[in-house]
């Protein structure tokens, strides 16, 4: 299984704690900008009302792309 590269507007989850931003591993955000030619990402974290409470530049190893539907058939 190949790891998908994050893209603009992907929904992602943090894989690390970022105590300096009061963010915990598992918190969900959206990629809103590609930084350093796609080597980093601006991720926006919003509350249930859609109000942004933090926007942070992150590296690929600090996030994982969340998938909501199957991209390809799974064979067993």
Can you give a write-up of this model?
This protein has 76 residues and is an all-beta fold. It is 0% helix and 38% strand. It is built from no helices and five strands. It has a five-stranded antiparallel sheet, with no helix packed on it. A hairpin with a 5-residue loop joins strand 3 and strand 4. The chain starts with 10 loop residues before the first strand and ends in an 11-residue tail after the last strand.
Average pLDDT, all residues: 90
Q: Nearest-angstrom radius of gyration?
A: 13 Å
Shape: globular
Number of helices: 0
Question: In terms of topology, how is this protein built?
Answer:
Layout: E1 11-14, E2 28-35, E3 40-46, E4 52-58, E5 63-65
Antiparallel strand pairs: 1-2, 1-5, 2-3, 3-4
Quick recap of the structure?
This protein is mostly beta strands. It has no helices and five strands. The two termini are 13 Å apart.
Keywords:
76 residues; mainly beta; five-stranded antiparallel sheet; 38% strand; globular
